[in-house]
Specification:
Layout (H helix, E strand, L loop, with lengths): L1 H18 L1 H4 L7 E7 L17 H13 L1 E7 L2 H10 L4 E2 L2 E2 L2 H4 L10 E10 L16 E5 L3 H13 L4 E5 L2 H9 L5 E5 L9 E13 L2
Parallel strand pairs: 1-2, 1-3, 6-7, 6-8
Antiparallel strand pairs: 4-9, 5-8, 5-9
């Protein structure tokens, strides 16, 4: 009789645990706040949160967040500064970072890449006829983002092809575009998926490619 009573009480406890999970464990359904780095084409906007976030990378990050019950807190700075903040732990994740052995010593990269980034040298569309091939770029001034894989790939292309480029690094996209519009540089090196690349520039030559990840 005693064993039967103990078995009955155990069954009640098990059923209670299955039927009332909230009573068995604390509620952990609240999303985790994750600080993610985000760059803007123009760093001088008054309120970055008012700038619409769109595109493949944004949607990919949102998908990752939905799988992990995350809610992002966006942190806006230049690319180089965000990489430093990621290394220091001031932000938690940063999307679209190309893998390098040096970076792998600092960051824990995602197991799978987001995509393959392809880098091109772009010239103003109005001057496209002046650049029929890669050799027409030789000796020109090319603007590129500071502390990026794009800059590394551009330097390697320049050395490999002995193109004699003058490579000038800028901290944000708007500065590069202003320099191009003002004639301070002849071209810019960018990845083709950058949403700010519009019809005002055209690609002349591919200068590299790499996989990008979320570290």
């Amino acid at each position: 009789m005693k064993h039967a009573l103990l078995s009955f009480l155990l069954a009640i406890c098990l059923l209670t645990g299955f039927l009332s999970p909230a009573a068995a464990a604390p509620d952990d359904s609240s999303p985790k706040i994750v600080r993610t780095g985000y760059t803007l084409p123009d760093p001088n906007v008054a309120n970055p949160d008012d700038v619409p976030r769109t595109g493949y990378i944004y949607e990919y990050q949102e998908m990752v967040a939905s799988f992990n019950n995350w809610r992002y807190q966006y942190v806006y700075h230049s690319w180089g500064q965000l990489l430093k903040e990621l290394e220091d732990g001031d932000i938690d994740v940063m999307a679209n970072v190309s893998y390098t052995p040096e970076r792998a010593q600092k960051y824990d990269f995602s197991a799978f890449p987001l995509r393959i980034e392809t880098y091109y040298i772009f010239v103003p569309a109005a001057k496209a006829d002046d650049y029929p091939d890669a050799k027409s770029l030789y000796g020109k001034k090319v603007g590129v983002a500071k502390s990026t894989t794009t800059a590394d790939q551009l330097r390697k292309w320049n050395e490999k092809n002995q193109a004699g480029l003058t490579i000038i690094e800028y901290k944000d996209f708007q500065s590069r575009r202003d320099a191009l519009d003002n004639g301070d540089i002849d071209a810019i090196a960018e990845f083709t998926s950058r949403v700010e690349i519009g019809t005002y520039v055209v690609p002349v030559v591919r200068c590299g490619s790499s996989n990008s990840y979320i570290p």
